[in-house]
Write a structure and sequence with these properties.
With 163 residues, the chain is of the alpha/beta class. It has a single domain, classed as UDP N-Acetylglucosamine Acyltransferase, domain 1. The chain is 20% helix and 27% strand. The strands form 4 sheets. Strands 3-6-11-14-16-17 form a 6-stranded mixed sheet. A hairpin with a 4-residue loop joins strand 16 and strand 17. The protein is globular. Keywords: Repeat, Transferase. InterPro entries: Hexapep, Hexapep_transf_CS, Trans_hexapeptide_repeat, Trimer_LpxA-like_sf.
Length: 163
């Protein structure tokens, strides 16, 4: 079970009520920063931009591949450990808007995690240290440390060993 906070809405669907949830100017700023970072070839500059301008916690030596998309509305709820690889075109979400509610959840990615290209990480998920996520996976639940997991929805293929 993902760890999310649920906020019911009345009337129009939750996405239609977006700017009651988060500031328009925050979304504009985050969008600009994330779009520039997606194409920046300098890994240290990407990490600096994420830390400085949008509040994402990024560990040292973490590498974001080209086109990685962080949550535009709540990037401050994403924490990524040190020495991770986030593969090409991966999306990391900390929110989801539904018809009758919206949900927010912290995303915690441990140290030395590798996430394969074109994966999606949903809100409220924790990925343990040294876990490996296969390309094209939908991470919709917690992944233990050291595990190899893949698929849509994700499943554990091999459990890790503790050192």
């Amino acid at each position: 079970m993902r760890k999310t906070e649920r906020y019911p809405v009345q009337g129009a669907n939750a996405l239609w009520q977006l700017y009651k949830t988060v500031s328009f100017w925050k979304v504009v700023r985050n969008f600009i920063v994330i779009q520039v970072a997606r194409y920046t070839p300098f890994l240290s500059v990407k990490n600096w931009m994420y830390r400085t301008f949008i509040g994402t916690r990024v560990g040292s030596r973490t590498a974001f591949g080209l086109m990685v998309m962080l949550d535009i509305m709540f990037p401050e709820r994403i924490r990524i450990g040190r020495n991770c690889i986030i593969g090409y075109n991966t999306t990391i979400l900390a929110h989801e808007y539904l018809i009758d509610e919206y949900r927010l959840g912290d995303v915690i990615i441990g140290d030395e995690v590798m996430i394969g290209a074109n994966s999606t990480v949903l809100p409220g998920v924790t990925i343990g240290d040294r876990a490996v996520i296969g390309a094209g996976s939908l991470v919709n639940r917690d992944i233990p440390a050291g595990a190899f997991a893949a698929g849509n929805p994700i499943r554990i293929i091999r459990e890790g060993t503790e050192e």
